[in-house]
From TrEMBL:
SUPFAM superfamilies in UniProt: Acyl-CoA N-acyltransferases (Nat) (SSF55729)
Homology family: Belongs to the acetyltransferase family. EctA subfamily.
Identification of the protein by name: L-2,4-diaminobutyric acid acetyltransferase
InterPro entries: Acyl_CoA_acyltransferase (IPR016181), Ectoine_EctA (IPR012772), GNAT_dom (IPR000182)
Pathway terms, separated by semicolons: Amine and polyamine biosynthesis; ectoine biosynthesis; L-ectoine from L-aspartate 4-semialdehyde: step 2/3
Keyword entries, A-Z: Acyltransferase, Transferase
Pfam families: Acetyltransf_1
Organism from which the protein derives: Arthrobacter crystallopoietes BAB-32
GO biological process, one term: ectoine biosynthetic process
Domain (N-acetyltransferase) ranges: 1-129
Keyword RNA-binding: no
Highest taxon of the lineage: Bacteria
Entry keyword annotation includes Acyltransferase: yes
């Protein structure tokens, strides 16, 4: 799904297997009729255990438009009892901006946005990643 999204940074299959082993409790997989439909990978920040850092969100193309990403994000935040949610989003990723802005609205939470890693910090000219910090959640 990450590869098929054509927008997510790809990790090795090894890193995804490690992620599933070590961060299964802070990640989620959605299935529809037994078929994988979407996933969110995340972790609780070691220095802020009440903060869920969302790493990747993907929904298979055939399941888009069903609010699956929003449902997974709401469920995952409840699952880990998050008080805050963080993610990074590039300026051109309108779908993710809508997803996390909507999440903040549904949870009556403040959304703060600031550059976290700017283009000049990357060796490969990656776009600036903006930190979206949402919370406290209600």
């Amino acid at each position: 799904m990450a590869k098929d999204s054509q927008v997510l940074d790809l990790n090795s299959s090894y890193s995804y297997l490690l992620w599933c082993r070590d961060f299964a409790d802070s990640s989620i997989l959605a299935t529809v009729d037994g078929e994988p439909a979407g996933f969110i990978t995340g972790y609780l920040r070691p220095d802020e255990p009440g903060t869920l850092m969302v790493w990747q969100v993907a929904v298979d193309e055939s399941f888009r438009g069903r609010r699956l990403a929003a449902s997974m994000l709401d469920r995952l935040a409840r699952q880990v009892d998050a008080q805050r949610v963080e993610t990074t989003i590039t300026e051109d990723n309108e779908a993710s901006i809508r997803l996390f802005t909507g999440f903040a609205g549904r949870h009556d939470a403040v959304l703060e946005r600031e550059p976290l890693f700017t283009r000049d910090q990357y060796p490969d000219n990656h776009d600036t990643e903006f930190l979206f910090r949402i919370g406290p959640l209600n």
